[in-house]
């Protein structure tokens, strides 16, 4: 980054950065290897044709994970948080409304601070509140499990975010600070699908892009409706053969 700015960077700083990056990459590789190793044994434990088959072990791994995630979900709900999405090892939360009261007043339905500043403040508040919640959850897990091995990790704030179905969502990811120019985070939303026409891919992309704009004031339903209306207006320019192929 410093080189891109035309600034001088000492050899010592370059060497230190290279060393830290190497250590970080090694730790990531070890963590991934351990995850693959454990998942392999879990898979074999539930495989009736495997010499490592042990139904009780596989069942306990699943039930223990479900129990812990349910305990955490119940805990945070009691604290006023909303759970928008959860699976076997993760939760997407919404902070209590009162956390945003001051920035709501500053925005004043568009009569105060800009919408981007309003959203930025909401993201910052979410980061601070979730970090505190993470520590409380980890204390709870330590007391419940009798060990500090199992921990909750705070990863990111997704805002705005759209959930299109089970385990399918997209949004703008914010990790250390708000940045609404970040690349979209898309999880299992099938924008590119075999047999889908180029036109349909463009429609999908337009709906997603419009729904993520800071100045957007429409609901997702309204956006889809407007995009479909544009399609009807431009019907003569559409590759109908491609559309029929996709529909079939």
UniProtKB/TrEMBL annotation:
Which GO MF term does the entry hold, naming one?
nucleotide binding
Instruction: Provide the leader sequence positions.
Output: none
Q: Which Pfam families does this one have?
A: DNA_pol_B (PF00136)
Q: Is-annotated flag, keyword Nucleotidyltransferase?
A: yes
Looking up InterPro entries in the UniProt record yields: DNA-dir_DNA_pol_B_multi_dom, DNA/RNA_pol_sf, DNA_pol_palm_dom_sf, DNA_pol_type-B
Q: Which domain of life is it from?
A: Eukaryota
According to its UniProt record, the EC number is 2.7.7.7
Q: Write out the entry's keywords from A to Z.
A: DNA-binding, DNA-directed DNA polymerase, Nucleotidyltransferase, Transferase
Query: Which residues are in the DNA-directed DNA polymerase family B multifunctional domain?
Result: 23-236
Question: Does the record bear Glycoprotein in its keywords?
Answer: no
The UniProt entry's GO biological process terms, in alphabetical order, are: DNA-templated DNA replication
**Reactions mediated catalytically:** DNA(n) + a 2'-deoxyribonucleoside 5'-triphosphate = DNA(n+1) + diphosphate
PANTHER family for this protein: DNA POLYMERASE CATALYTIC SUBUNIT (PTHR10322), DNA POLYMERASE DELTA CATALYTIC SUBUNIT (PTHR10322:SF23)
- This one is known as DNA-directed DNA polymerase
